[in-house]
Design a protein that fits this description.
It is a single chain. By secondary structure, this protein is mainly alpha-helical. The chain folds into 2 domains: about 70 residues, no CATH class; about 180 residues, no CATH class. The chain has 13 helices and no strands. The two termini are about 50 Å apart.
């Protein structure tokens, strides 16, 4: 009952009339008589409104909405949950490719531990020193975003075909030529607009096909780069050198980052993590290829 009374009292119009009435009563010639009347009216209002089922339902619904929104914000702001959602959105083959690359990093870490004379897995904090770096997480995160871009582009290209778009463009061109011969300006204006749209669709499809080819090349390049770096970390046994090389490689990927940004709307990345999560430290047990 307390929350209903509080909500009724804090309603802005009630506060306005109640405070206005109280001030008016104090300034009146008979404050001792008017103030109790204002208080009685306020009490009647609070009691009546708080007892209304419709008002109670509205207050309960508002509280539930606040709780849901808070939970959604918390879920969205959790890097682990967001990373899981990104992985679960991938096609099976793309997910398997990412998990195998991540597993390769762990395999090289364990080999590095053995080379250093420690049993793999004895001390995860020590054995990960030469392999696990934030820059490597950045490379893996870029690889993941490219996989999502690839999946988005493939879905788009499968939704239509270049011959279909070309045929549509040719048909509009033919109709426009016929309308021009008949000197029908109204039809010509409509077909000219349709022609521009048909040409735009075809150009967009061809651009997306080129984007897909670029993404595929970049995926191969970054995958090879990550494997080469982690294998180098095993053979050289110099954590500082390895870390600097991984950082330099991550910083050299700016043009790829820019390309991913341009593909955000198609791949569904706009609302995802802005900063690389700790992929190698993440718990991905629930994600299965």
């Amino acid at each position: 009952m307390r929350k209903y009374l509080k909500a009724a009292f804090l309603y802005r119009w009630n506060l306005l009339f109640f405070l206005g009435g109280a001030i008016g009563a104090v300034l009146s010639p008979w404050p001792d008589a008017v103030l109790p009347i204002v208080g009685a009216l306020e009490l009647a209002y609070l009691t009546g409104l708080s007892s209304m089922p419709r008002f109670r339902k509205a207050i309960d619904a508002g509280e539930a909405s606040i709780v849901r929104n808070a939970g959604a914000r918390s879920e969205k702001g959790n890097p682990q949950n967001t990373l899981n959602q990104m992985l679960e959105s991938l096609p099976a083959l793309s997910l398997r490719r990412f998990l195998l690359l991540r597993q390769r990093c762990f395999e090289m870490r364990d080999i590095a531990s053995g080379v250093q004379g420690r049993m793999a897995g004895d001390s995860e904090a020590d054995s990960a020193d030469s392999i696990r770096t934030p820059a490597l997480d950045k490379l893996l995160f870029l690889f993941l975003k490219l996989l999502m871009s690839e999946a988005g582009l493939e879905r788009f290209l499968k939704s239509t075909s270049e011959p279909e778009l070309a045929t549509r463009l040719q048909a509009v061109q033919t109709r426009l030529a016929e309308a021009s011969a008949a000197n029908d300006e109204r039809v010509m204006r409509s077909l000219q607009d349709s022609l521009a749209d048909a040409q735009l669709r075809l150009d967009n499809y061809q651009k997306s096909a080129k984007d897909l080819e670029f993404v595929g090349v970049e995926l191969d390049r970054i995958e090879t780069k990550i494997k080469a770096l982690i294998e180098m970390g095993v053979s050289r046994q110099d954590p500082d050198l390895f870390s600097s090389q991984v950082t330099a490689a991550a910083e050299s990927m700016q043009h790829t980052e820019d390309a991913v940004m341009n593909l955000q709307s198609l791949s569904g990345l706009a609302d995802q993590l802005a900063e690389p999560p700790a992929i190698l430290n993440a718990d991905l047990d629930r994600v299965r290829a």
